[in-house]
Amino acid sequence: MSDIHNVIIIGSGPAGLTSAIYTARANLKPLVFAGLEFGGQLMTTTEVENFPGFPEGIVGPELMQHMIKQAKRFGAEIVHQNVSKVDFSGEVKRVWVGADEYKARSVILATGASPRKLGLPSEQEFWGKGVSSCATCDGAFYRDKVVSVIGGGDSAMEEATFLTRFASKVYVIHRRGEFRASKIMQDRVLNNPKIQVIWNTEVLEVKGQDVVGSLRLKNTETGEESDLAVDGMFLAIGHIPNTKFLGDAVELDDQGYIVVKDKTHTSVEGVFVGGDVNDHRYRQAITAAGMGCMAAIDLERWLEEKGVEVDTTADTYTNPVPA
Ligand code: NAP
């Protein structure tokens, strides 16, 4: 059974790495496919001020480095490759990285979701320098500043309302003449004196020196272009769960998120899920980490209940913290 791993974890954001820490400490020697770009969304975040344990805050990439070190310390094996396809139809789960096949008794899926972007080169250029997709994470940096929120769904309403706690003015820029958000969320925005809605408008370009200074806008009805001075642009145009590589291996909802059947167990026995690839409500580093922990504990108990034979020869507690 040596070529069959106890557990394969796919993803290396807070969910995947917390699963790795827990399963490694349970002596299960997890194999983690971290992706070519490890660390998930926090790798593109600057200061993280809401992750407990860091009273001064911590920059996103540093937090992820800590998590990966912690997982390695307990014996998690980290492979910096993207999983290309899976087959969960048999008792032994199969995972491919290109032509290389890996097998496991169980799997934790923690591939996250990526914020949908407008697709503008300037949006990429100013990412983390005034362009963000998380008001909860970055809103506090905009005290007494002018910010914009792009989108017309519940997320845009929520982000805009949240940002009024800090910003002096919040523009909601929406490409149509009506919101798709629920009425109660819309009303909060429409009745908030700090918020001004700019209807039927799309963003053509993000402009600025080192940080965002203004947006080039186009009215979709008249074609008229204009500049709007803002200090920040928050994207709230939806998320895309990273589930394409799964095909129909597990049940997904109509938006492509992984469905849970029992606690963190997916539609396939022995396959568990943690983090934003399942959760489109909270989407926080701390909630993803919490779900990663839950998936690891559910998996350990499932292995035990099923009497699945696992290799527990890992010498978990003797590893030094890696440099
Ligand atoms: P969403 O409902 O899909 O809304 C996305 C918004 O972004 C839409 O208004 C859409 O415009 C706009 N948009 C999409 N692509 C765009 C583009 N390329 N350029 C400009 N605008 C674009 O996404 P969401 O707001 O993130 O919500 C996702 C789900 O989570 C929903 O089911 C929502 O109800 C739920 N949610 C609930 C809460 C809550 O209850 N507290 C909070 C947040 C989210 P169009 O309208 O023109 O398509």
Automatic annotation (TrEMBL):
InterPro entries: FAD/NAD-bd_sf, FAD/NAD-binding_dom, Ferredoxin-NADP_redctase_2, Pyr_nucl-diS_OxRdtase_2_AS, Thioredox_Rdtase
GO terms classed as biological process: removal of superoxide radicals
UniProt remark on cofactor binding: Binds 1 FAD per subunit.
Reaction catalysis annotation: [thioredoxin]-dithiol + NADP(+) = [thioredoxin]-disulfide + NADPH + H(+)
Keywords on record: Disulfide bond, FAD, Flavoprotein, NADP, Oxidoreductase, Redox-active center
PROSITE patterns: PYRIDINE_REDOX_2
Pfam families, alphabetized: Pyr_redox_2
The EC number(s) this enzyme carries: 1.8.1.9
Cofactor(s) of this protein: FAD
Positions of the FAD/NAD(P)-binding domain: 6-292
GO cellular component terms, semicolon-separated: cytoplasm
GO molecular function annotations of the record: thioredoxin-disulfide reductase (NADPH) activity
Superkingdom in the source lineage: Bacteria
Family as reported in the entry's similarity comment: Belongs to the class-II pyridine nucleotide-disulfide oxidoreductase family.
Complexes and interactors: Homodimer.
Name by which UniProt lists this protein: Thioredoxin reductase
Protein's organism: candidate division WS6 bacterium OLB20
Gene designation per UniProt: trxB
